[in-house]
Amino acid sequence: MSTVTLTIENAIAFITINNPPINATSHSVRSGLVDALDQIDGTDDIRAAILICEGKTFIAGADVSEFGQPPKPPILPDVIKRLEAATKPVIAAIHGHALGGGLEVALGCHYRIADSKAKLGLPEVNLGLIPGAGATVRLPRLIPVSEAISMITSGKPVSATKANEIGLLDAITHGALGDAARDFAKTILNRETPASLLARDPIDAPSSAQWDDITSATKKKARGQVAPLAAISAIRNGIEHGAGAGLAFEREKFIELRDSDQSKALRHIFFAERSVAKLPELKGVEPNPIRQVGVIGGGIMGAGIATASILAGFDVTIIERDEAACDNGRATVEKHLSGSLKRGLISQDRFDALMASLSTNIDYAALSDADLVVEAVFEDMAVKHDVFGKLSLHCKADAVLASNTSYLDINEIAARCVNPRRVIGLHFFSPAHIMKLLEVVRTDKADTKSLATAFEFARALGKIAVPCGVCDGFIGNRIMSAYRKHCEYMLEDGALPHQIDAAMVEFGFPMGLFAMLDMAGLEISWATRKRLAQFRDPSERYVALGDYLCEMGRFGKKNGLGWYRYDENGKAQPDPEVDALVIAESEKKRITRRDFTSTEIMDVILGAMRSEGDKILSEGIANSADAIDVVMVNGYGFPRHKGGPMFMTVSD
């Protein structure tokens, strides 16, 4: 079947693309579009054309199978120029997503109409690229330059409503898209065909001083990523030097970025996120249906899990120890959803419906119909055993029982549970209703049905699910523990906390290790160290500075004192008292302190990550190096444009 077909209805031609799943701009689509336009221009009876797509979406990107291959003509920029040169007006009828080259195709059309639920965007910067088929030149001539800059440098799609407000669309429909496009076409048959976007002037172009401010702000947000700055250069060039020069400059930058290390890293993590959860053993395994979800514990983590679950459409029951704790859990969920309501992400009706789907109880019998239960209580094995004993007693036989433990042995938890085949780990990251990463921990006895159900649950929550085996800390926390240990060595050897953190931020992390520990709460890692103390090799170097801080009552940002001192606005400042404590510990251990450069600090940190990652792979805890990269990028702030610690190992 052809990927592009042409039909004619009463002087209106329908160009239909059918290239599932995303109607990508493959070679067959590109050549099919050119052939259809040639036929339309050569048929006098046709007065207008509608470009529309089958399936769930408009054109939502490029054909990934063509990545890395020499381009086959007609290339997309030439197809879009052919659209602009059509002698009959062409209307893009958009539903689902118009992304990347798909939106660029729509920009080549004379008009754009969209379904009210459609989203339009240029996500190329997320792959270390800029648009390569003219969007940096055309978009600022259709919508205000500031809006074009926002769309292109952020990579975030806009809603149809927003697109209509800024002039990206000519109309929105709440009805059948094909019918609306046909009706729209009839209204423009006697109009003069609009000039192509390349022939128009930019809208509200910035002054030279404003360009400098825009570039500075973009550089700050980019944190070392080059594509957003290249996008600014391309947009500015197209405005200041004209459309023709702008197109040539854009194409040059696109090709330069396409071959860059950053783009290779971003493409690596993009594909890794989409493949890491595809386990061969789960192929053909049907997950259990999930309608009701239980959450044990309504604290910060439990309430976050409950929020994510009700947003995904599940009925949720939180189990707590008493009514006061139940009320607190419900209030926390309500607070999360109220934030979404205030930001306009959900309506009042939606808010009310979501809160109605949440219940709380102190009796585990309320979980008798739950399909999946997530335990999120204190990190204490005795407490966990008590919880799972009650779940075994009250939950139905095929309910999947999951622990959100960060470090404890889930095999031991499962061993004490009736039917251990249904026990798994679901390690959420805080805040659980926002963070995308979810480690799915496979216990030794977990069956494929339970695993398939867990991955389906993760998909419903919109999480990036990474499979892993059982060990202390799983993938992410185990690697973090390894590089934290080496950062603590550097403290004793001559570095200070703010110097290590500054090196990490310069590298591309959103915050440094010690600032992150302060944010999480120092007592959490302190409890883990005390739990593992009996197993510690006496000959292993141990740094007690974190213990000293906790003994001094310094638990982090929550009480204003941790590795840093926090002012009334929560802003961190290096604390001379902590620096003195660090230096005194070096003197106590008779360690001669030395200076560390930022490069030396990052070499130590990356080396620790890679070394521990290699151990995790050799032990079979992670299925692939990709899994480790996905965890570190999505859960621990590793800069996305560097691809992850294991990718950097290969690249280096």
UniProtKB/TrEMBL annotation:
UniProt KW keywords: Fatty acid metabolism, Isomerase, Lipid degradation, Lipid metabolism, Lyase, Multifunctional enzyme, NAD, Oxidoreductase, Peroxisome
Keyword Transmembrane helix recorded: no
Domain 3-hydroxyacyl-CoA dehydrogenase NAD binding residues, every copy: 292-468
SUPFAM superfamilies reported for this sequence: 6-phosphogluconate dehydrogenase C-terminal domain-like, ClpP/crotonase, NAD(P)-binding Rossmann-fold domains
Top-rank taxon, per record: Bacteria
Major localisation: other
Entry protein name: 3-hydroxyacyl-CoA dehydrogenase
Organism encoding this protein: Thalassospira tepidiphila MCCC 1A03514
